């Protein structure tokens, strides 16, 4: 430069055989203002020649360092610098680190056409100005999240909430690039057919991509979303009223591994009544073939099928379901709620209720050589009008482990209440422990199982219809399910129940009778969060009254220890008598 003032902004200056920036005084003053630039991997970074040459730099990454506000001297974190790819990588210190005040008003896009001023979610803003902060260098980093909002009116590129994709399918198409790790979806209803009425189209999951619902729009942190307040529905009702032309499968996961995630959605009104040869007769809500995706915080409801698994069908896969509700699904064959073939599912903290199957098992069917595990679930109010079992059927040579689970209120044609809840068909096997089963006889073996009433708040709600929103299977005070589960069975990463409340809440009014450490985990999908009344210690005979019978027991042991030592002093005396008389009457 000569006899001038130059401005250099949002540039990437690399691999020069001389200097990255060289200012030469050729007889008149020369100066440059450098902002939001990356100057690295050159023979030298900045060279000034002559007494009247100078440079001001701010919010730039200059090798060797340079004085000025916001400047750094750190590896740029290019995607592939040696290979010539100078886009910013995920760990680049140049992301959200520039100065918004030094971006020309007409500089709205980078050389790729990517909008400037993209806030990279999860990256701390170290630059100057109001968020979003411009990046250093020529290229604005595209964050690995795409945003979807059916009400957005902007540019529909999915990089900001104002410019969110309107159609979820557009965002899912972009995940094929491998650059997108998450898709955030705002409240609303999304249909998979793109307006074509094509029943074969589904929302397709992909390994390495988390599809997350429950956003209001505007969030920069997924932890701020609320799936209940911001109901986000993936729906199969793509045509006329009724189900005849609904999507065969609302969501599909074909060979998707555990890094493919579906979180925080309502999945509803799929109708898998298609040809058996295409498997379009199973899995109206969610169809899983191979792999082992992760499904969390989803409500899978009101789906139908002709054959297997109206809510969920899974073959040759090992999916994980956590904190899900599967309800009001209906199969003309097996498994109104869920059906598994040649699979290894893990189902934790889930409620499966109000589902119906016209052939076998209204709730869950483990069928044909599956190895399943059900932990801390509530399987309630499912129906099999033409088959013995409404709850859980283990068949086809399967081996299923059940822990800390409640099976109650399920109905089938069997005359035996236990069989209406669960049935094991030879040569299948069941390993059940620390669970509560209506009509429990002990014939299925296991440890610490019970047939005691779980004392739900209201198993079928005020409307007396299973599967509807008013059903409440939280535990009442005094429930035998409180503090009686097997803590060793709950996966270590699970810390919340289906409501999002903490697990391992010790009820001081209930004796800890659970297995493992700690010994106060509850059974079922909800952890009791209240406090039961402490036991009535003066009721020595356990009849719910403190009366003459209890007084007689205390006096019979007077001066000794044991029953009647109400204050724990080791001796039954006047102090204990006083406590008993103070508690006289109903407990």
Description:
The protein is mainly beta and 587 residues long. It has a ten-stranded parallel sheet, covered by helices on one side. Helix 3 (548-556) runs antiparallel to helix 4. It is globular, with a radius of gyration of 32 Å. The longest helix has 9 residues, at 548-556. The mean pLDDT is 92. Helices cover 5% and strands 28% of the residues.
Question: Summary?
Answer:
With 587 residues, the chain is mainly beta.
Secondary structure blueprint with pairings:
Blueprint: E1 4-9, E2 12-14, E3 19-24, E4 30-35, E5 38-40, E6 44-49, E7 53-58, E8 61-62, E9 78-80, E10 85-88, E11 145-148, H1 168-174, E12 182-186, E13 188-190, E14 203-204, E15 210-215, E16 232-235, E17 251-256, E18 261-263, E19 266-268, E20 271-272, E21 286-291, E22 294-296, E23 299-301, E24 304-305, E25 312-315, E26 320-322, E27 325-327, E28 330-331, E29 338-341, E30 346-348, E31 351-353, E32 356-357, E33 364-367, E34 371-375, E35 378-380, E36 392-394, E37 399-403, E38 406-408, H2 417-421, E39 422-424, E40 429-433, E41 436-437, E42 456-458, E43 472-475, E44 545-546, H3 548-556, H4 574-582, E45 585-586
Parallel strand pairs: 1-4, 2-5, 3-6, 4-7, 5-8, 11-12, 12-15, 13-16, 14-17, 15-18, 16-19, 17-21, 18-22, 19-23, 20-24, 21-25, 22-26, 23-27, 24-28, 25-29, 26-30, 27-31, 28-32, 29-33, 30-34, 31-35, 33-36, 34-37, 35-38, 36-39, 37-40, 38-41
Antiparallel strand pairs: 9-10, 42-43, 44-45
Helix pairs in contact: 3-4
